[in-house]
Amino acid sequence: MFMAENDAKEKKTKYQKLEEKLALKKKSAWEQFTDKQKKETFALCDEYKSFLGKVKTEREAVKEIEAFAKKKGFSELQKINKLIPGSKVYDIFKDKNAALVITGKKPLSEGARIIVSHIDSPRLDLKPKPLYEDSGLAMMKTHYYGGIKKYQWVNTPLSLHGVVIKSDGEKVEINIGEDPKDPVFVVSDLLPHLSAKEQNKRTTVDTIKGEELNLIVGNMPIEDDKIKQKVKLSVLEHLFDKYGIVEEDFVSAELEAVPADAPRDIGFDRAFVGGYGQDDRVSAFTSMAALESIKTPEHTIVVLFYDKEEIGSVGNTGARSKHIEYLFGMILEQLGEDMSAHNIRKSLINSIALSADVSAAVNPTFKSVNDPYNSHLCGYGVALEKYSGAGGKYSGNDASAEFVGKIRSLFIDKGVPWQAGELGKVDEGGGTTVAVFFANHGMDIIDMGVPVLGMHSPFEIVSKADIYSAYLAYKAFLGL
User: pTM of this prediction?
Assistant: First the structure.
């Protein structure tokens, strides 16, 4: 009798069955992964942390991408005379953009499978004339790049990366602060004992002002009473002795102050990766890794890495440039296909693409900025955003229902953990990606990436489950 009663309780009601059939269910990616996939997740993220620690700038990212390409048997596109199905080539553009290409069985005019990410991140750039002395300190002035909360960049160790072009044309590469033996640099904040009357009355956005993001770079004066700026000259002497740089060389330099910390695991369970520049180098890494198992695809695969997204994708290395048309023209030429302007446009319009960029994850401490029904959770899989932009979807891409349906069906078929939502409440803010610029070519494209906590801060946080889910998603897409 007791067993019969239990059996009756365990039977699902009509409406439980209906709910199971009709209602959308949210389930953590961790719960969807097999034990084997969990092991693969941690292994992949160990590789990712190694990559992330090496690529603090867009130039460094391009170098790592090129190294990956050479290791995996890709040849330089500019040095190849003919492409055939299965050819693996790469192209580097102005040391700030990169493309990895595997040619398909079908003509390029039938469209490619494109994944595009960006490899620039918010940072502090040195001004053209950065060095000065004040109050016994040598300082360097900066101009922040991209959208940052300026107060997050004070009292934290910063390293200096980039290039200096000397008057004779020699290029000098700078990387100071990553080796534990290196010095680091810092923007010093005002102590709380003296901030009550002025600084504490500022709004959050002005707690630290742009002109207050000045790096401390020296303190030891040279021993010569005839020199007025002794500490500044001491720094210049060091730079000349070590790098052959004079003060005027800063005018033709690209030097970036970035967080000196290495990527770290976060949490007792090590379920997160914390580190600088995960927006959007997490997408760059996972899209690159997704190429490894591709042999000869049906459609040509093009994985792109762009600069300047954080300031509007402008300039000759941004996604608004004509670089994609130039690249497609080269591929068509070496495939022996028609490379007319019309066929380039046809090849682009017949392509489908993913804008591989991060989105916002729900921060439990600040949940009010999110629509709870349309937000992304850490660990619940790769985030699909049908549209981006702000307010009334301004300045954003809006993928068609047909294309979203195609991607959704693909992920269901391939067992890819995914979630759908938006970046915050409608009137709370918003953001755009490179998707809109590729949509301008007529192709179908959707935003898809990893949810991030603390985006644009010096130490962003992402779930390892979402990193692995993004890898699975990009790999499935490339096989379409």
Answer: 0.94
